[in-house]
Design a protein that fits this description.
Blueprint: H1 3-12, E1 23-27, E2 31-42, E3 45-51, E4 64-66, E5 75-82, H2 88-94, E6 99-105, E7 111-120, E8 134-137, E9 140-142, E10 148-150, E11 163-170, E12 174-185, E13 187-197, E14 203-214, E15 220-229, E16 248-252, E17 258-263, E18 266-277, E19 281-294, E20 296-301, H3 312-316, E21 327-335, E22 349-356, E23 363-371, E24 379-402, E25 407-418, E26 424-431, E27 438-443, E28 447-451, E29 454-461, E30 466-476
Parallel strand pairs: 1-15, 13-22, 16-19, 20-26
Antiparallel strand pairs: 1-2, 2-12, 3-11, 4-12, 5-11, 6-7, 6-10, 7-8, 8-9, 13-14, 14-19, 15-18, 17-18, 20-21, 21-24, 22-23, 24-25, 25-30, 26-29, 27-30, 28-29
């Protein structure tokens, strides 16, 4: 049994978490669904219930409050969501137009007070919308606080954390543990992969991490976490991002403990161990560790990447397609199959490459690329960088348009040089961008037609060898 299959077996027998524990389903579109338990003790008639254990980026119209057993219908007459939590700025705003004492401390710690009228608090509930306060002291205006403000006692309407308040109607007295579900922004996840290879050879180890980010304004302690991979459709609501970085990094390289299954049109990954996600923190959980993965190194030269396909300006422009790169890309390709010691849907994420330096045993970073969601059985192909010792030159040698006959010919020459100490194969990709009716009438090498407008030449070069590819293409738009 390979390492990766062992991973799935361990995760499958993880204990099921009992109802009542907070659970999250985090989507890789920077939002999550939060599920929590709310104990209710309702009397007959109208009831007011407040619940303060929610995030600062909750979407109020997404809230669902229900009896999970389906026995008690909950009639919500009204719902309020408040995020104006207790802070100095908020209290200043409540006291605009009033005069307060401000405490001033000198360098020796001696205190004195000064009276100041709050003309403008400068407070705004929208993060980042900052205005300086205006305080009148002794008949003059100051654009800063003269000291530490002293506020009157709190009123009953003050809150210290974001709060949901419901007005509920009940036909008779009832006690139940209601289930609260809501969508919140500020929770995110993404996959990250490290591929480690020896200095020579195509066999490597693949380590995958789930990177969890919490900027929701709430800490989630000991919660069950599921991760949804794939893009679900959402209507744009504008930015609700919190300002400020995710400051700390919690590394949790525990034994792999993630199970996966297809769900609807997506893939759902469940973390077997409960997680604690502190607000403003980034955490990591290893979700795949596979050894003996064969990843072929491929060299690709794509001198010109076409755009503006079938545009008349492109068709007749002599200059189009003559600007070319001389860089040969280093690509790594592997199959996501059980036979290749993988065989799990791979979520979108950054894939980083490392090779071990045999001179000192150190791992050296050799490039990174982004992979898309990759189902089982598909091939992953990513770019690691540009080859140092492989050189390519591409130039057009002939261009002729016969407008009356509605045809065109174009010729190219591609020189390849191998300055490495071993033989290599370079795949030369050419896009036939002038028109969709084309025919290669002359060629120095055989080619593969990879799609309706693209051909690929595969050329093997010995150490210190140079080869020249030429071809002539005929376009016809009758």
């Amino acid at each position: 049994m390979n390492t990766f299959r062992s991973l799935l077996l361990v995760a499958s027998f993880a204990p099921v978490l009992a109802f009542g524990q907070t659970s999250l389903t985090i989507y890789n579109q920077d939002f999550a669904v939060v599920r929590d338990r709310v104990p209710l003790d309702l009397r007959a008639g109208d009831n007011v219930v407040s619940y303060a254990n929610v995030t600062a980026q909750l979407e109020p119209d997404s809230v669902v409050l229900r009896d999970p057993a389906g026995k008690t219908p909950l009639q919500i007459l009204n719902q309020n969501y408040r995020i104006d939590t207790l802070s100095q700025g908020y209290l200043l705003s409540l006291n605009e137009g009033k005069t307060l004492d401000f405490i001033i401390r000198d360098k020796d710690g001696k205190e004195s007070t000064v009276r100041g009228k709050i003309i403008r608090s400068g407070y705004s509930p929208r993060s980042g919308d900052y205005r300086s306060p205006i305080i009148e002291v002794g008949g003059v205006l100051r654009f800063s606080l003269p000291g530490e403000p002293v506020f009157p006692a709190l009123g009953e309407n003050s809150i210290i954390s974001p709060t949901l308040t419901w007005w509920l109607a009940a036909d008779s007295p009832v006690k139940l543990d209601a289930e609260l579900s809501y969508i919140t922004n500020g929770l995110s996840w993404q996959a990250s992969y490290n591929l480690i290879a020896p200095e020579k050879g195509d066999m490597l180890d693949l380590i995958g991490w789930v990177v969890l980010g919490n900027a929701s304004g709430k800490t989630f302690a000991n919660v069950s976490v599921k991760l949804m991979a794939g893009k679900v459709n959402r209507v744009s609501r504008g930015s609700r991002e919190r300002y400020g970085p995710m400051a700390s990094m919690a590394m949790m390289p525990a034994p792999p403990s993630v199970s996966e299954r297809a769900f609807d049109e997506f893939h759902l990954y469940t973390l077997a161990r409960p997680q604690t996600l502190h607000d403003g923190e980034v955490g990591q959980v290893e979700f795949i560790h596979a050894t003996g993965v064969k990843a072929q190194t491929i060299y690709v030269y794509e001198g010109f990447t076409a755009d503006n396909w079938m545009n008349n300006d492109v068709r007749y422009s002599p200059e189009y397609g003559t600007q070319a790169s001389n860089k040969v890309s280093v690509m790594r390709e592997f199959k996501n199959t059980h036979e290749n010691n993988l065989g799990m849907p791979l979520p979108m994420g950054i894939m980083r490459f490392y090779r071990q330096n045999t001179a000192d045993g150190h791992l050296e970073f050799t490039g990174e690329d982004l992979i898309d969601h990759t189902p089982v059985g598909e091939t992953v192909m990513v770019k690691a960088g540009d080859a140092f010792d492989l050189i390519a030159e591409r130039k057009r040698t002939n261009f002729h348009v016969a407008e009356a006959d509605k045809n065109m010919t174009e010729e190219f020459e591609i020189k390849l040089r191998n300055r490495k100490t071993e033989s290599v194969e370079i795949r030369v990709i050419e896009h036939l961008y002038r028109w969709f009716n084309w025919q290669i009438t002359e060629k120095s090498d055989e080619y593969l037609k990879t799609d309706a407008r693209t051909v690929e030449f595969r050329v093997t070069l010995k150490p210190d060898e140079e080869k020249v590819i030429t071809y002539k293409v005929f376009y016809d738009w009758h």
